[in-house]
Amino acid sequence: MLELRSVETRYGLSQVLFGMTLTVGEGEVVSLMGRNGMGKTTTIKSILGVTPPYAGEIHFFGNDIRSRKIFEIAKLGIGIVPEGRQVFSTLSVRENLIATAAIREGCKAAWTLDRIFELFPSLAARAKNLGSQLSGGEQQMLAIGRALMTNPKLLILDEATEGLSPLLRQEIWRVIGELKEEGQSILIVDKNIGALAELADRHYVIQKGRVIWQGDSAALKSDLAAVQAIVGV
After folding, report:
1. Which helix H or strand E contains 158, and what residues bound it?
2. What is the distance between the alpha carbons of residues 29 and 18, in angstroms, rounded to a whole number?
3. pTM of the prediction?
4. For the CA atoms of 224, 177, 179, 80, what is the dihedral angle to 10 degrees?
């Protein structure tokens, strides 16, 4: 579905990604791990066209998207749950969800308000509340719901559980697990190695803009100490 080949990205003269290579297959959940400042968010921005790479290739369903504009890439079916949630603070929960709603060609079970509220019952209870009136956990649920309302072929979550309480983290992992069971393709950035080892199919660990470890969950569990040493603070 998604393939990055030798991607190089920089901000001005400062290079961040050095030959970044990864893949996400249909129906796969793939994690991207690393310490802060190692290039995880830049990788996502490169995929989305926010910070286009100056070298390498990015393919989505076989189509080169490296030179496409941001809105064109979004229309292809890539949904993003950004770091920091970035919900529309002056819009209600309901308005946030319908603001970006889209039905994709070939979509078998479209996401609707009812389905989102079934996935996140707490959002249903606060449908008329403004985004600014929600807790951090509720805002993360709303950000996920908003991305799902675009009916993405690939869902990207940047720092999925950052800053959340243990209870709310469990709720987010529950939802991601349900999405996986439904066959949703997901690329997820998070630091919770234990949860990712149980949930994701494959993993990439990056350091200074390069992949330095990759493998499936069995390999991650057997090499847990080494990966924790790379990802931990």
Report:
1. strand 154-158
2. 24
3. 0.92
4. -50
